[in-house]
Design brief:
Helix content is 55%, strand content 16%. It is of the alpha/beta class and 178 residues long. It folds into two domains: 114 residues, Response regulator (Rossmann fold, 3-Layer(aba) Sandwich), CATH 3.40.50; 50 residues, Orthogonal Bundle (Arc Repressor Mutant, subunit A).
Length: 178
């Protein structure tokens, strides 16, 4: 099951959604009240499903889709007029108010899409990526999640697999212990 990040300006709205998700067997990884908090959580979490309940400053759904769409499925629950301003086809939209069953159905579908879309690294590929992250941590003073995100962003921007980029990083650092 993917990690779920819930974001919305209304504390009571986030709490209500969190209870709905918990009653359906979904666990909220993080609940965010601001756009900055949401972006930090998305960077830290690395992949999953983000639910945006309404709008948040500094967290426009189109921008989030551009920045995090490769790793996250995005669900926007908002009033119809707010949904119209979101143009990204990567954002799944539900008009508010909507029944809880619609939210759960959308989340189940997005969870399945998430599972199909993100290949999991195993064995040698995972060791290669972990070694490259360790190199970035050592050379650049990054945290593990920052190193992962830097590699992820580079791979997405240059349309290469993260494992290929990890191999490039390690080759470029020949003679350096990792």
């Amino acid at each position: 099951m993917p990690r779920i990040i819930l974001a919305g300006a209304s504390e009571s709205g986030r709490a209500q959604l969190s209870r709905l998700l918990a009653a359906s067997g979904f666990e909220v990884f993080r609940s965010c009240a601001s756009g900055g908090e949401l972006r930090r959580a998305l960077n830290e979490c690395e992949d999953g499903v983000a639910i945006l309940a309404g709008s948040l400053p500094n967290a426009l759904p189109d921008e989030l889709a551009a920045d995090f769409g490769e790793a996250f499925q995005l669900l926007l629950i908002a009033r119809p007029e707010s949904l119209e301003s979101c143009e990204s086809p990567e954002v799944f939209k539900l008009a508010y108010p909507c029944p809880g069953s619609a939210v759960i159905g959308a989340l189940e579908m997005l969870s399945q899409l998430h599972a199909m879309r993100l290949p999991r690294r195993t064995g040698e590929d995972k060791r290669l990526v972990d070694r490259a992250k360790a190199l970035l941590i050592k050379k650049e003073g990054l945290t593990e999640s920052q190193a992962h995100r830097r590699m992820q962003v580079y791979a997405m921007k240059h349309n290469v697999k993260m494992t290929d980029y990890a191999a490039e990083l390690l080759q470029g650092s020949e003679g350096t212990e990792v």
